[in-house]
Amino acid sequence: MQDARALAIEEDAPVGERDEELALAARSDPTAFGLLYSRHRLAVFRYLRTRTSGEDNAADLTAVTFERAMVAMPRYRPTGGGFLAWLLRIARNAAIDAGRRGLATPLIADIPDERPASLPEARVLANERRTALAAAVNDLPLVQQEALVLRYAAGLTAREIGDVLGKSDQAAQKLLSRALATIRESYRVDI
Questions:
Q1: Is 1 found in the same domain as 71?
Q2: CB 84 within 8 Å of CB 154
Q3: What three-state secondary structure class fits 104?
Q4: pLDDT of residue 139
Q5: 86-92 long-range contacts, Cβ below 8 Å, gap at least 24?
Q6: Is the pTM of this model over 0.85?
Q7: Which of 25, 56, 108, 151 falls 20 to 30 Å from 138 in CA-CA distance?
Q8: Residue span of the structural domain in which 63 resides
Q9: 88 and 122 fall within a common domain
Q10: Are residues 16 and 60 in the same domain?
Q11: Packing angle between helix 158-165 and helix 142-152, nearest 10 degrees?
Q12: Segments of the chain scoring below 70 in pLDDT
């Protein structure tokens, strides 16, 4: 078996294929799991940040996710959705478990401000727009909210989203399309 670092930087294989090889190597090589952690921790954190009330809770659930993944590595089987989809399914279950314990919030609790405004009036308007957008997203059916979060917070494709949600890639694409159409209809901001 190849060295884990060589698998991580292999140029001619797509990232998904390298992930699969690293995941299989991670069953016996902690270095391979560490490389997978480095590659995917931000996507998992961003996804969990939408499911929790703060960054500390998201960081805690990210740790839980990777701990569960490490324990489950011997049972990992490559599927069409890939390693990241498998990992986000674990993260989703960790968030659901946290919700049962009262640690989670609505799916879209807050939309972070990517470009903070310098003027107080602009900050207030930007905050109102983010609040309105979060309300529009929270009015969607839960499965559509989940699809949006997986697409835009975790960066998954429709195929990977389908794998996480247990749906076909066409059904996942339809969920995304319907969610975006509904938001366009309900969310209007005068700029």
A1: yes
A2: yes
A3: strand
A4: 87
A5: 86/163, 87/36, 87/40, 87/44, 88/43, 88/44, 88/47, 88/150, 88/154, 88/156, 88/160, 88/164, 89/163, 89/164, 90/65, 91/44, 91/47, 91/48, 91/61, 91/62, 91/65, 92/47, 92/146, 92/164
A6: no
A7: 56
A8: 1-105
A9: no
A10: yes
A11: 130
A12: 1-17, 102-118, 188-191
- The neighbouring-strand residues paired with 52 are 104
Question: What confidence score (pLDDT) does residue 191 get?
Answer: 40
Judgement on whether residues 48 and 84 belong to the same structural domain of the protein:
yes
Q: Which whole-number Å values give the CA distances from 122 to 125, 127, 190, in the listed order? A: 5, 8, 13
**Residue 49: Cβ within 10 Å count:** 21
Rg (CA), the chain: 18
* CA angle at 30 for the pair 24 and 35, rounded to the nearest 5°: 75
Number of Cβ within 10 Å of residue 142's Cβ equals 10
Where are the strands (E) in 22-115, listed by range? none
Residues 87 and 181 in one domain: no
Total residues belonging to the chain: 191
- Contacts of residue 89, defined as CB under 8 A and 6 or more positions apart, other chains included, come to 163, 164
Distance between CA atoms of residues 20 and 15, nearest Å: 9
